[in-house]
Amino acid sequence: MTSCRFSVLALLLLSAYCWAEESKLSTFLTCLFFSFSLSLLSHSLLDKQSELSASEIIEKANANNVRRADDPQLIEMDIAIDNDGERNADPCTSRGCLWGKNTDGKVYVPYYITNQFSSREKSIITRGLESFSAFSCIRFRPSRSSDRDWLSIESKDGCWSFVGRRGGKQVVSLARSGCLYHHTVQHELLHALGFNHEQTRSDRDNHIKVLLSNVVSGMEHNFRKIATLNQGTSYDYGSVMQYHRTAFSRNGQPTMVPIPNSNVNLGGAREMSAADKKRLTSLYKCSVLARRSASMADSCQRGLPTHPRTLQVIDSQGTVFPGELKDQQHRLRDLIPDEFMTILPYYISAKSPPRN
């Protein structure tokens, strides 16, 4: 039992005792003080865990995995494979593992979240699923009986996923005991969409130095390179798919060091980076998207007036299409993510603020 679980259990037991003894004021006040202290301890432990990068969380969650007969093999800590023959296989993108694009230009990925999760845990997973629609043509949607391929999000042993679409039911494991964090959900979903780890990039030797002398014996294969496409992006030390510098270390010393500047933060991402997003939209050829500035999104949520020209229309290569939004109304209705459709008419019809 983890210290966090212990403190929560102790808090519940202590609270029950307090209610039984509340007639004694001094006992009740003492209980109240210790209950408050345990509550602070629980939140502190949870906050400390959430501050870890995705790779650190995955490493901890997968450290003592016990593989069952029906579980897949894991390589590179969290990539699932069916057999040894897949260890040195070409990237799945060369075998056609992408999820299909619909006629409306969106890529719908069906998913099912098992009933193993609580409502709070499901909301963490759902938030991770929905984060993709804010910048890409990817739309995760609940599965239907007619779906041939879908993701089954389950709480198995550890955090792991297959890379790319496999066909049929495809398990993504997010163990309740250590994987339910926003960036960890994003990491495993990126695997399911076809992405490998950043440190396996074909050009990685130009950007990091792998120190195999510090790697646990027998784990050297986790640092193999793959013939990745890279989608025209430079190496990203801050990618949510980049592992931290002591991954698979046998002695606590770095197994990867950035070059030429060894002090660059490596593998510390707690959400998808700009490069992660660009690669995804490029890989799936998300044609034309609506770019919303962070300030606009924030203003929308708070109900503040926003100048309509803060919205720009771009294609997947970053080309900006200028012009009045009111002249592009018919295009924007097809481009704006579904969750913003309810506010779209306001921003299209809004007039520029009067000049002083």
What does this structure look like?
The chain is α/β, with parallel strands linked by helices. The chain is 30% helix and 13% strand. It has nine helices and twelve strands. The strands form four sheets. Strands 4-3-5-7-6 form a five-stranded mixed β-sheet, with helices on one face. A hairpin with a 3-residue loop joins strand 1 and strand 2. Helix 1 runs antiparallel to helix 2 and helix 4 packs across helix 5. It is globular, with a radius of gyration of 24 Å. The protein starts with a helix and ends in a 7-residue tail after the last helix. This is Metalloendopeptidase. Keywords: Hydrolase, Metal-binding, Metalloprotease, Protease, Signal, Zinc. Its EC number is 3.4.24.-.
Main β sheet profile: 5 strands, mixed
What's the total number of strands? 12
CA distance, first residue to last residue: 65 Å
Total helical elements: 9
Helix content: 25-40%
Q: Give the overall average pLDDT.
A: 75
Low-confidence stretches: 1-12, 17-23, 27-47, 289-356
What would the principal axes of the Cα set say about the shape?
globular
Elements, N to C (H/E):
HHHEEEHEEEEHEEHEHEEHH
Please give the radius of gyration in angstroms.
Answer: 24 Å
How much of the sequence lies in strands comes to 5-15%
Q: Strands of the largest sheet, in order across it?
A: 4-3-5-7-6
Derived from helix and strand composition plus strand pairing, the structural class reads alpha/beta
